[in-house]
Amino acid sequence: MVIGFGKDHCPEIAYQAAYQVGLEVAKRGALLLNGGLGGVMEAASRGAKHGGGFVIGIIPQDNKAAANEFCDAVVATGMGFARDFITAYSADAIVVVGGGAGTLIEIAAAYQKGIPIVAVKGTGGVADRLVDTYIDDRKIERVFGDSSPKKAVAMAFALIETG
After folding, report:
1. What is the pLDDT of residue 128?
2. Radius of gyration (C-alpha) of the chain in whole angstroms
3. pTM to 2 decimals?
């Protein structure tokens, strides 16, 4: 799963990194899951589609038409930010590209469930703030990271395998 900045505040560096993450996920033959909207979600979806992958978007709206055009399947939850728990709990691992408060919700949910988290360094937001740390003193899951989107995806897959 790829999480991060929405369309309204996604810098180009994060958009490009997310595209590369999506492409790498597709190259590995894995399904890409994300929040299905714009920004990082759209970029990762676009990358996955260009790599021949399959994309599932779990959107907060109740209308599937709100999803980005690169989603193959859309889950329209109508739940607003509560959908962040569904996206996090549905992932085998999470790759974080930038991100704000919504991304932080997904990271916290994944952390509580022990789902591996990998941040792409240098993309801003919570990815840069949390990389190489733990969310709290319980040290459930370390937020790993790398500045290369390709290496971040490889790290996420390695964490799934050792999980």
Report:
1. 98
2. 14
3. 0.96
